[in-house]
Amino acid sequence: MLNRYPLWKYLLILLVFIVGVLYALPNLYPKDPAIQISAANSGASVGDSEMARVDQTLEQAGIAVKSSESANGTSLIRLENGSQQSAARDMVSKALGQGYTVALNLADSTPQWLQAIGAKPMNLGLDLRGGVHFLLEVDMDAALDQRLDVNASAMREALRGDGIRYRNNTTGDNAIRFTFANADDRSQARALLNRQYNEFSFANEDDAGPTLVMTLTDQAVTDIQDYAINQNLTTLRNRVNELGVSEPIVQRQGPNRIVVELPGVQDTAEAKRIVGATANLEFRLEASDSTSADQQQAFDFRNDAGRKAALERDVIITGDRVSSASTSFDDSGRPQVNINLDGPGGSRMNRATRANIGRNMAVLYIEHKTRTRTVTRDGEQVEERVPYTERGIISLATIQSALGNQFRITGLDSPTEARELSLLLRSGSLAAPIYFAQERTIGPSLGQQNIDRGVMSVIVGLVLVLAFMIVRYKGFGLIANLALTVNLTLLIAAMSILGATLTLPGIAGIVLTLGMAVDANVLVFERIREEMRSRSIQQAIHTGYERAFTAILDANITTLLVAVILFSIGTGPVKGFAVTLSLGILTSVFTGVMVSRALTNLVVGGKSLKKLWI
After folding, report:
1. The Protein translocase subunit SecDF P1 domain covers which part of the protein (predicted)?
2. Which domain holds residue 593?
3. What is the pTM of this model?
């Protein structure tokens, strides 16, 4: 019989619709503005007395509290008004003192029965949720200097291993210089190093004695700079993942810049401190009586002003060799960081400590920073960024036995410093220092305004399309409108299930999807009208859906290919638009062909009709 579906097709469509409704529902429950309270000491918790003080503080300030909850020593207070969130944090932080950390948060309000089936709302992008945008600039000169220092250290070790003596060693201007006592030693050193370091061009100088100058080639400079950018991208992504930010954006912009967008992050000071931290570690032996003056450097202790120690210039390993790091407390309750090294790092550490039992080994903490000063250029005062590096010893301990892949770092000031150091070591060190070229914050209120406008655009577009279809196609227009409603529900559900991020361009993609979805029904209905001139009503409906399917498929496949290309080559907002458009095309084909046909079959299928209102 024409225009009748088997029962299983109706049940399948009903099942898809029910699942779509369930997984789209969480988007009706927006996240609550909240403040999160935790103890600065990881072993402590927020007790009843502290919560009573918090409640009293907020009540006196006239800040309405929606609810409060505690779990794992941390308390979460949901607020009624998002505009009071920052004020509530400041007041609670002042009331509790330095022993507690108070941070802004967005608390999930999805009902438990929806969470039990894994339903969750869509992630919102930076322009909708608010958050922070950083434009970071990578110091390429520092990347080259760091690589030169590492190579120079390895070259000194190679020369000592072959018994070739040198007088002096310096780095700078993309070159490493060794000065020797005579030309024969220089020739031997050149023959040895030329075999191992093909990224350098070698030349002899005799101005200050027999000197071997090794200059990085242009290709080597380019490779080092590309490595610095790519390594920093990887490190920043790891750090952002440690922050627990949903759907962050970390991408390269131009030759030496990186864009970082953190949606939902409101504690910008913490984000900036973690993202921009350039801390690294170096493990060095303390200089002995036999260490020459040019092979040692003096450093201050970070937590003991006025105390110094002389360390050897050669580095055993750096923080790059750390594979994992965690925090704990020693027997005296002082914070420490537990270190695991990778294979090569563990081997180097074992060789160095096995041969130097009884000597002291230092952990040197290195941090690259900048200070801003005002200078006059061309008669105008401008701000100039001056980079500088702070180096300090955080631990100096005697090597009791040979160390391997696992050991610990002590001598840290606080649990917070230990947590941040372990985070930086886990995520990897930066290959070159980075500086904040631009910082932009989007507040939650502006994000809510964007959401309201975006929702209004979808509603207006939907209402206009619904009205047009009813006026143009009457009863069949109502069928198309029902199919369109199902399409919007399925699209929202698909984005929620896949964890896609909704941005303003994504909302534009939804509006475009509504227009494309109704286009499929227009093709079908116009084809039915045409077929009714030469066929019966039931045959016209059947032929209209069958023959319009090819045109619908062709049009949507073409658009889907464009969306895939946009996703593959686009970045940020363009990707968000492409994802929404791609999912919308898939749901549009399903609802325009399957759902619309099922509704038509239920209404007119198998009936004897003399006239069709279309």
Report:
1. 229-286
2. 7-26+443-604
3. 0.60
